[in-house]
Design goal:
Elements lengths: L1 E5 L5 E5 L5 E6 L2 H10 L3 H21 L1
The protein binds zinc ion.
The site of zinc ion has 8 residues, from helix 2.
Length: 64
Amino acid sequence: MYSRSRNENGSSNTRCLYCFLTVASDVETAIELDRIEARHICPEKALAQLLLRGHSFEIQVQTK
Ligand SMILES: [Zn+2]
């Protein structure tokens, strides 16, 4: 999930909503924004998924 904002000169910035890191700034096109966002490896998102997996594993253990 990303938050995009537009600069006065028409270029855009994009910020990751998981780690609040500005992934890119002064990007000219939406295609470029898509490309940069796809390339972002988010530490916060990875951690959240890891915790989620750990949680579902706990549930599996308890129901056995
Ligand atoms: Zn991120």
